[in-house]
Structures are given as structure tokens and as C-alpha cells.
Amino acid sequence: MPYFIAFLETVDKKKDAEVLDEHKAYLKKYLDNGKIYAKGPFLDHSGGLIIYKVKDEEEAYAIAKEDPVIKYQSRTMILKEWKSTFPE
């Protein structure tokens, strides 16, 4: 199954703080069902990264666009396909 990385850049820190708990709860269901491989914030507080493990880019985009930080425009997103070189 392919991987897709969402680079999330914070553009509205106040709004981002307001939706952070909702963002974490949203991601948890995809962690639990295996559609998120890894996630986490950048240490400079500029945003974060999510690695989706899904069937195609369309599915990754569908999940990402409903993330509260994207939906409420506190972060922008760049989505790219990624190849893992780690053994599964």
C-alpha cells in the first residue's frame, strides 16, 4: 500500500490552538485503523507532518481535507507520495 505525506504549515496560530484537540481526536481514528503510519509536530512549532498509508492519493486527500486544521484553515497542506525504505 502506498504512503502519502502531508506537510502541514501553520498559518494562523490562534485558530490552530483552538482546533488542536479536535485535530488530535480526528487523527486518532485513522491511527487506530492503520491509515496513519506516523504523525507529529515540527519542533520549531511551524506545523507538522502526517504519513498516510492508504490505497491512493484520492483517499489520502479525502482524509486530509477533513482534518480540522485544514478544514478551518489554520494550516496549509502539501501532499506528496512517499516511498518507505524501511522493511514492513
UniProtKB/TrEMBL annotation:
InterPro entries: Dimeric_a/b-barrel, YCII. It comes from the Bacteria. Residues 14-82 form the YCII-related domain. Belongs to the YciI family. This is Uncharacterized conserved protein YciI, contains a putative active-site phosphohistidine.
